[in-house]
Amino acid sequence: MSDYEQEYRRWLASPALSPEEKGELEAIAHQPDAIRDRFFGMLEFGTAGLRGIMGVGLRRMNVHVIRHATQAFAQVILAEGAQAAAQGVAICYDCRVNSQAFARAAAEVMAGNGIPVRLFAAMRPTPELSFAVREYGCIAGLNVTASHNPPEYNGYKVYWSDGAQLPPQHAAAIAAQMEQLDLFDDIRTLPYDQALAEGRVTLLGEETDQKFLAQVLSQINDKAAMAQVADTFTMVYTPFHGTGYQQIPYVLGQLGVKHLHCVAEQMVIDGTFPTVKSPNPETPESFALAQKLAREVDADLILGSDPDADRVAIQVKDKNGDYVQITGNQTGVLLLDYLIGAKGRAGTMPDRPVALKSLVTTDMARVVAEANGVKSYNTFTGFKFMAEKKNQLEAAGEGHVIFSYEESIGYMIGDYVRDKDAVTAALLLTEMTAWYAAQGMTLLDALEALYQKYGYHGEQTLNLVMPGLAGMEQMAALMAALRKDPPADIAGTPVACQKDYQDGSARDTATGTVSKMELVGSNVLAYDLADGTTIVVRPSGTEPKIKVYLLVKGPNGPACQAKLTQYAAWAQGLKDLK
Predict the structure, then answer these.
(1) Which residues are CB-neighbours of 216 under 8 A, at least 6 positions away?
(2) pTM of structure
(3) Model pLDDT for residues 396-454, shown as the tens digit of each residue
(4) How far apart are CA 411 and CA 423, in angstroms?
(5) Which residue of the set 2, 14, 130, 147 is catalytic?
(6) Residue 554 and residue 509: Cα distance in Å, rounded?
(7) 360-382 residue pLDDT tens
(8) What is the pLDDT of residues 494-550, one digit of tens each?
(9) Average pLDDT of the residues of the chain
(10) Residue 296 pLDDT more than 80?
(11) What is the DSSP string of 14-39?
């Protein structure tokens, strides 16, 4: 009998499972592939925590896996010492099916291990969890959410004392503990009602909201710009059934938006996300209902936040009257340029200002920053790395970070969070749109002006989906093949430099000279081409796919598009690489 079959039988026999859970497993008794898929191994615990499809099994998101991960997390916290553990943890959750139950299960385990818990009384945006960890001096935090994934998913994000998601060494420590701990027998819990009655779990609510929202509103640069256009400025907002439904309309009202129209069907909290195929604002088709409403009210701006309100996307009307998406790369460039100007006008630009971006984000952000006297740094993908860089620079007095962003519609502003924050970003994106409206410009006009000023750039991300165990093996084989035989040219263009961020090496293909890069330790490959293009290849940290990022430059928009088409064909062919 295989290991996964033994694990399946062990779960079936466990008294920890409810009759309903056992029934779900009995239903696959004669489906060996289904058993293998659920039990061939644990969900990988990485720097993004856990994420997976909900269901019963070792490789599914369920209350048993949540307790197992939380016991491991608790032991890592306890290893920091009694004083650190006494600082406690903050726990938050989103709108998804089972999120509240999973959050309470996590609270029970933390309390059972003698670690005080601050649990949000109801769902809240992810950035408020980051804020709470910092505000209350917690040693750590965790958030039950699968962000923008389809409704069958849930997840478990983990945070450390700075309010950022776990650094790699702590994630590795939790993963190691999970390997050692028995999933059923080694878990210490305290029933929720008892933990609450004994004060081991305390609930967070309106007081924390007020503190967080005061910080968000402190980021307003130019309220007068909104006042100038408020009588005519109209916008549409959707939270996609999620946690942004209260706070984002509130801060927009405080900014002075008079004509805010929320998509009524999507203001209904529902973890099954019935009105969209997937609640991902990065996907333009998710905005169908918002566009319908925008056409009815003749909106200047459509804004949507994902279910845990850490990411935000925008759409505006083009010259044909159609609403078009502004990409995350473009939105970040617009917002960076606007913040530099707005802080300059308001006299609030700090000394030694810094902008951070991930290495897969457009190089145009660096160009904009440096042209305006703002230092720019690249980090690995993930706001934990941006938080780490921000903390490092500011502790050393080497700069103050005014803006951090990733191409995947994530933006971090201010000093009160260490994660992407759709609440603050929604506020400032609206302020920016109003400021341009007061100049008689749309955001598309503003983007074209930036291209003319700083040069044309184009970006495209391709997702090579590889599901299941076979997909994991295929992803590993693809990265190994690229390392074994790195391309000397891509789609006919010579590769000038081959970069491997696993070992931090950069190889000049003309001379063969190998140099060391500052960034090291991530499974990422990059190729700088002779025409100024950069192509980055990396496995996703949360989904079963290889992501290929195309970052091009050209004399105009059509030239950039031609390059993207050229290199996209090469990227699609990577799935066949052996």
Answers:
(1) 247, 251, 414, 423, 424, 427
(2) 0.96
(3) 999 999 999 999 999 999 999 999 999 999 999 999 999 999 999 999 999 999 999 99
(4) 10
(5) 147
(6) 23
(7) 999 999 999 999 999 999 999 99
(8) 999 999 999 999 999 999 999 999 999 999 999 999 999 999 999 987 678 999 999
(9) 96
(10) yes
(11) -TTS-HHHHHHHHTTTT-HHHHHHHH
Q: Distance between alpha carbon 271 and the CA centroid of its chain, in Å?
A: 18
- 226 with 143: CB under 8 angstroms? no
What's the token pair of residue 545? Answer: 């796919």
pLDDT of 541 reads 72
| Active site annotation includes 147 | yes
Local confidence band at 29 (pLDDT 50, 70, 90 cut-offs): very high
Instruction: Tabulate helix, strand, coil % of the chain (nearest 5).
Output: 40, 20, 35
Residue type, 227: A
C-alpha span between 267 and 258 (Å, rounded): 19
**Beta carbons within 8 Å of 160's beta carbon, 6+ residues apart:** 133, 139, 140, 141, 166, 167, 170
Q: What is the pLDDT at residue 46?
A: 79
DSSP 172-223: HHHHHHHHHS-TTTT-----HHHHHHTTSEEEE-HHHHHHHHHHHHTT---H
* Helix pair angle (247-255, 422-438), 10° resolution: 30
Q: What percent of the chain has pLDDT over 90?
A: 93
Q: What is the pLDDT of residues 117-137, one digit of tens each?
A: 999 999 999 999 999 999 999
Q: Are the beta carbons of 74 and 167 closer than 8 angstroms?
A: no
**Strand, coil or helix: 570:** helix
Residue 365's identity, in one-letter code, is A
Q: Hey, which residues does 463 pair with through a beta bridge?
A: 547
Residue 270 main-chain phi, psi, to 5 deg:
-160, 110
Q: How many CB atoms lie within 10 A of CB 371?
A: 12
DSSP 145: -
Closest by alpha carbon to 513, among 496, 529, 530?
A: 496
